[in-house]
């Protein structure tokens, strides 16, 4: 089987909600640069090996497709969200303009700054557990804990009102839409989200606080070369989506992994010092990082995995598959709570790696610490095979996580 003669249809199908598609292992072994057919009918190159995925993600020449690129579309005509079918170019997709935008933001997401947020995160986590315990002995852990925690954190960071979290959730889903909403519904949601964020930026100009948006506005005025209002609006939207949707999904997936094999949870209860390595191992072990991987648009020819890909090719980098590559990880099929080092690619690599990875890691760690301490008897309320995967979005996750104690 060669790349040229093997085509797969995405998203790949797995046996269970937490299992990787069996096809991934075959592709890594026999066809690391395959051709993938997307729900739109368009085709793209599909990478599954660690070395290839990391190399392309780290290559500063290539970035996510923009609306101006003639890239493969993920969604069928009439559907798709902003993140699914090409990001707007309010912020340069690559080059010095993109790196300058990252530098403006990255100083607010350093490990040192995020650690200052940790006590507040822990307080919020305990408050959410208090509410869960007050309601009885069972809950949907995603709805009651996994979703609200990162929403409160990112809203506090941005200076957005957390009581609008249900609206944020809908807007985020539309941003990441593949087939859940129509194109018209997505357009309306995007317009609403843009208007909301524009008003929030205006409010921060009138009455600045100690939040990130206010700080960015003040710095822009002082330096004379900061972000425009349009860039501030886009930045606020991007951070709100990235800051809660993916982390909320990851908290639920991490807990599902640990509770689906009770010995993992018991090991953590016996040795809470494993919390940090467990959070990273959950990121590596996650079979549902996304249905289509990280996308890159090639504006010039590149050779990767022994195959020459021409300019104009859209490439899908499957980080979930790369994170289970035996050439990069010892016994990758095992969830090893003490795995270290753990060079997983859940946050990408290189100049486009996730800006908020320190924040996400800390939220995962705080979630684990709090739940271990407060609800040690936590267990799944349904068989793992009955957990339902999120459908119709470009991010992967579970629609709910029923638990009891």
UniProtKB/TrEMBL annotation:
<dbReference type="InterPro" id="IPR001128">
    <property type="entry name" value="Cyt_P450"/>
</dbReference>
<feature type="region of interest" description="Disordered">
    <location>
        <begin position="1"/>
        <end position="20"/>
    </location>
</feature>
<dbReference type="GO" id="GO:0016705">
    <property type="term" value="F:oxidoreductase activity, acting on paired donors, with incorporation or reduction of molecular oxygen"/>
</dbReference>
<feature type="region of interest" description="Disordered">
    <location>
        <begin position="68"/>
        <end position="89"/>
    </location>
</feature>
<keyword id="KW-0408">Iron</keyword>
<keyword id="KW-0349">Heme</keyword>
<dbReference type="InterPro" id="IPR017972">
    <property type="entry name" value="Cyt_P450_CS"/>
</dbReference>
<dbReference type="Pfam" id="PF00067">
    <property type="entry name" value="p450"/>
</dbReference>
<keyword id="KW-0479">Metal-binding</keyword>
<comment type="similarity">
    <text>Belongs to the cytochrome P450 family.</text>
</comment>
<keyword id="KW-0560">Oxidoreductase</keyword>
<dbReference type="GO" id="GO:0004497">
    <property type="term" value="F:monooxygenase activity"/>
</dbReference>
<protein>
    <submittedName>
        <fullName>Cytochrome P450</fullName>
    </submittedName>
</protein>
<dbReference type="GO" id="GO:0005506">
    <property type="term" value="F:iron ion binding"/>
</dbReference>
<dbReference type="GO" id="GO:0020037">
    <property type="term" value="F:heme binding"/>
</dbReference>
<keyword id="KW-0503">Monooxygenase</keyword>
């Amino acid at each position: 089987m060669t790349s040229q003669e093997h085509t797969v249809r995405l998203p790949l199908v797995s046996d269970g909600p937490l299992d990787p598609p069996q096809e991934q292992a075959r592709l890594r072994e026999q066809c690391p640069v395959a051709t993938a057919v997307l729900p739109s009918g368009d085709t793209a190159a599909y990478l599954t090996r660690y070395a290839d995925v990391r190399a392309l993600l780290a290559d500063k020449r290539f970035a996510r497709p923009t609306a101006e690129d003639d890239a493969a579309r993920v969604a069928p005509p009439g559907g798709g969200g902003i993140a699914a079918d090409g990001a707007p170019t309010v912020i340069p997709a690559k080059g010095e303009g993109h790196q300058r935008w990252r530098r403006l933001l990255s100083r607010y997401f350093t490990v040192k700054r995020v650690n200052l947020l940790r006590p507040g995160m822990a307080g919020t986590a305990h408050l959410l557990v208090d509410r869960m315990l007050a309601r009885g002995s069972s809950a949907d852990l995603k709805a009651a804990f996994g979703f609200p925690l990162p929403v409160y954190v990112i809203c506090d960071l941005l200076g957005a009102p957390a009581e609008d979290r249900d609206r944020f959730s809908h807007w985020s889903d539309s941003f990441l839409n593949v087939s859940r909403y129509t194109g018209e519904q997505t357009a309306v949601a995007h317009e609403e989200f843009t208007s909301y964020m524009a008003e929030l930026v205006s409010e921060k100009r009138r009455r600045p606080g100690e939040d990130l948006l206010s700080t960015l506005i003040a710095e822009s005025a002082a330096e004379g070369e900061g972000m425009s209002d349009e860039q501030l609006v886009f930045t606020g939207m991007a951070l709100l989506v990235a800051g809660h949707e993916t982390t909320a999904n990851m908290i639920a997936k991490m807990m599902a992994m640990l509770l689906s094999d009770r010995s993992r949870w018991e090991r953590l209860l016996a040795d809470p010092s494993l919390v940090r390595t467990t959070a990273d191992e959950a990121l590596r072990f996650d079979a549902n990082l996304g249905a289509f991987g990280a996308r890159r648009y090639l504006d010039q020819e590149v050779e990767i995995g022994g195959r020459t890909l021409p300019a104009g090719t859209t490439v899908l980098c499957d980080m979930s598959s790369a994170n289970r590559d035996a050439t990069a990880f010892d016994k990758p099929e095992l969830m090893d709570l003490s795995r270290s080092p753990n060079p997983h690619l859940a946050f990408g690599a290189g100049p486009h790696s996730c800006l908020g990875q320190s924040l996400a890691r800390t939220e995962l760690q705080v979630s684990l610490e709090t739940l271990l301490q407060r609800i040690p008897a936590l267990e799944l309320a349904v068989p793992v095979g009955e957990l339902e995967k999120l459908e119709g979005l470009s991010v992967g996750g579970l629609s709910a996580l029923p638990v009891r104690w």
